[in-house]
Amino acid sequence: MAMAWGQGELFAKASKQEIQRTKFLLDKYTDMVSLMRDFEQFEQDMQQVGIDGEAARRIDQTDLHADKTANATILIEKQRWVYKRYNFYTHQLERAQRLIKDEEARKAVDYKYIQGYSRKETILFFRRALSDSTIKRKIDEGLESVANTLKLIGFFEQDDAEF
Questions:
Q1: C-alpha triplet 46, 94, 140: angle, nearest 5°
Q2: Contact (Cβ atoms closer than 8 angstroms) between residue 146 and residue 96
Q3: 144 touches 19 (CB < 8 A)
């Protein structure tokens, strides 16, 4: 018997689509962190390049007249928006990863997605303690656990509402 509260389940289970979205975000995790660090370190430089450079000349190729100052402002705001989205995504992924109950699955997800190693490197790293098939299963279990946690905390609804 499933325990339910209102329309939501008490222990939500992620759909295939939500698991795929979680995998996509986890695959992009290291890129998001790298871009966030770059933005934090070089935000002023990026703003100046936007103003002085050609990036802001025409944001949309259909523009007949380019207002460089306005376009530079739009470009900077877009960069800030992307930074905020990446910050939100990475914090929620880290939170969900820390909540994986199975220690081996949590470590496998950390090594593969958070640290950014390939599936093969992850298997080689854990090979001494676990078989290849067990490692693959632990990665998949961890991925599903992250997706379930994201579903439980309302990540997917919040994410969809932002777009």
A1: 120
A2: yes
A3: yes
pLDDT single digits (tens) 80-89: 899 999 999 9
Six-digit token pair at 7?
């329309």
pLDDT tens per residue, range 130-151? 888 999 999 999 999 999 999 9
| Residues in the chain, total | 163
Count the alpha carbons within 13 Å of 90 in the hemisphere toward its beta carbon: 18
Q: Of 149, 88, 140, 86, give the one whose Cα is nearest residue 112.
A: 140
